[in-house]
Structures are given as C-alpha cells and as structure tokens.
Amino acid sequence: MVAAEPATFAFTEVRIGVVPAVISAVVLPRMLPNVAHRLMLTGEVFNARTALAGGLVDLLADADEVDDRVAEEVTALAAGGPQALAATKVLLRSRNDPLAERFPDLLALSARFFTAEEGQEGIAAFREKRPARWVPA
Questions:
Q1: pLDDT confidence of residue 97
Q2: Does residue 45 surpass a pLDDT of 90?
Q3: Element (H, E) at 73
Q4: N or C terminus of the chain: which is more exposed, having fewer CB within 10 Å?
Q5: What residues are paired with 59 via a beta bridge?
Q6: pLDDT > 90 fraction of the chain, expressed in percent and rounded
Q7: Which of 13, 44, 65, 117 is catalytic?
Q8: What is the pTM of this model?
Q9: What burial letters (b/e) apply to 78-100, b meaning 16+ CB within 10 Å?
Q10: What average pLDDT does range 34-61 have in this prediction?
C-alpha cells in the first residue's frame, strides 16, 4: 500500500465504545504488535510515517507522486509470471490461516459492541459532536 506523506490514519473505535475487531483481521497481520496495540488502545490519529514504521503501509510518496508510485508497483507486479504470482499469493497467505478461521468470531465481537449500550452511547456522542459519558471532564 502506498500512502501520501500528508495522510493520516486512526483506529478510533475504542473512542466510541466499540472494538476494532473487523479491521484487526486486515491490519494485525501487517503491523508490528506493539505499534498496533498502542494505536488501537489510544485511538490516536497518526501520520503516514508512523503507518510506515508500524507496517500498516509499505511505501510513502509525496502527495503529487502517489499515482506514479502506484504505477511503478503495478508495472513491477505485471512483470511476474501469472501462475507464479498466484502460487506465491497462496504461499504468503497460508501463514495467516488462523486469523481467517477467527474472522466469524471477530464479526460477532464487533456486532456485540456496536449494539451494546456503550457502543450506542459512543456513536451518539460522535454524531452529536460531544464527549461520551465515560470521558473525564
């Protein structure tokens, strides 16, 4: 994944009282555990350099050079043999099988928190642009 230097990211789910369960299926296999833990627990906004250092993105580019950088990556991928690329994808994904098996549980966890009282309060606070009840005054 290519990110533009000015891009920002955040896993803000905990700030509205829900769990970043579903997104964890995609980002946890990519990210350094200590970085993912801190960012998912705090919900803080982070920049593209932190995303790169934590493993969320692969490459940085100036905002006006993102399209060129993506085109370079596509060209590099297109140079590989189609069957070899497909077999390599299977090889690379095989190490993530346990997470794929947990995905139904992650969906259920996410749904449970989105529908729970805390999640509903957090979502309402977000919509109403006010702090949630649990945020210290």
A1: 64
A2: yes
A3: helix 66-78
A4: C
A5: 2
A6: 66
A7: 13
A8: 0.77
A9: eeeeeeeeeeeeeeeeeeeeeee
A10: 97
CA Rg value for the chain? 18
**What residues pair up with 2 in beta bridges, in sequence order?**
59
13 catalytic residue (yes or no)? yes
Listed by start position, the domains of the chain span 2-127
Query: How far apart, in whole angstroms, are the C-alpha atoms of residue 53 and residue 35?
Result: 9
| CATH code of the domain made up of 2-127 | 3.90.226.10
What is the total residue count of the chain?
Answer: 137
- Closest by Cα among 119, 103, 115 to 23: 103
Whole-angstrom CA distances from 20 to 92, 94, 125 are 24, 23, 18
